[in-house]
Amino acid sequence: MNGGITRREFVAGSMGAAAACARPAQAKPRNVLMIAVDDLNDWIGVLGGHSQTLTPNIDRLAKRGVAFRRAYCQAPMCNPSRASLMTGIRPSTSGCYENADIWREALPDAVTLPQHFMQHGYEALGGGKIYHSNQNEAASWDYYFTTHGYLAPEGFPVNGLDRGHFDWSPLDATDEETSDTMIAEWAGDYLRQEHEKPFFLAPGLYRPHLPWYAPEKYFEQFPEAEAIVPEILENDLDDVPPSAIRSLRDHTEVTGTRQWKRAVAAYLACIHYADQNVGRILTALEEGPHADNTVICLWTDHGWHLGEKKHWRKFTLWEESCRVALVVAGAGVETQGGLCDRTVELLDVYPTLTDLAGLPARPELEGVSLRPWLEDPAAPRERPAMTHLGPERAAVRTERWRYITYPDGEQLYDHDNDPMEWTNLAQRPEHAEVKRELAAMLPKNPSRKTVMDWEELPEQERRLAPLAPGRFHKSDPDNDIGLAPRRSR
User: Is the pTM of this model over 0.85?
Assistant: First the structure.
């Protein structure tokens, strides 16, 4: 990789980072607070994705900076999306397309976002879920705070579908007993303290990832009978390629058991719970000594379907899976309450945070700094967003169009006239030129290399965390945690 360094070079560079660091003149180095929220779609107030959502804390963060209303992930699943954001490299370059792909094998020489800060004299701390949890790595952190699984209601799964972690229920528990609040309180404790070095602090919240379990008080605010379910078109999938349809089983079972409203209410409850934990972190920052000198970035790793196009979960290339929340605020952000409608990518987070902190740019990064749109959200931008599900499954999103290609067909949607993506225009002759222009934006030679599957790792290398009594792993390895809990000095 052009511009990359080996791990050995990284260690050597870190030892001399404090002396070698060169920054633009400013009173003192800016800290970075990067908050990740797992599986949160556009159902937040500032994005307007659902009229019943309650996200006052994310919304107040947006009032302090710029919310990007057309931000998109590089892959509609946890591992490749997070790996791309943390390395600044597209899945189509790295070959890391799947949750089970070992991203570090795909990118052995990549300098991750926290490593770049460590090289320049920062203390890097993470907690909860930043990388896909079973692929966390010690080399990216000075310290890492973990929790031991999540709480589950008695007799889980409780919705009767018997689909593992595809479940939803209130918890008979206080916030303080739950993992995400523990993560938020850990981050808050750190933010209230003075520190000798500038910091890169990255708390990652798990909810609203499945299963949708949260303290009962959050469910009480979203009565099932009042829940508004997404609008769908009955024949919506008649004009899409067969391989675009991932699975209709979830929707058949949810609607067949009359749980659509219940599921939507549970997702809204978990969003509100996540927002409260975001609020805990922001309040700690505001009350501590770093309020005026910290860059804040909140992002989500991909979107989520709740019945749109008769799909649930992520794993598609439609708007519901690909659109994400992205807010940048705090030190260095000149605009307050800005709404940017330019098309941006999670790939832009790495260069944006290093730019705002005054660190040197890395030439291998494939995103660009969002500083110009933090200064003027209406400034022009011509770059599209690209999302991949593999070398032959990809989407291009511009401000008006979404183009999707599969091995067995194409899709083209005009968001000016069809924001729900109900009408596939790909076969209409009058749109042939638009389709050609969008297709030409995709990488010409996307990576097809074979990347080791996580399941192929020896058991001792998986670094599974022990579980505390009363806590549970999900039915997939997503909740496996790589590093032991540890508080900062």
Answer: yes
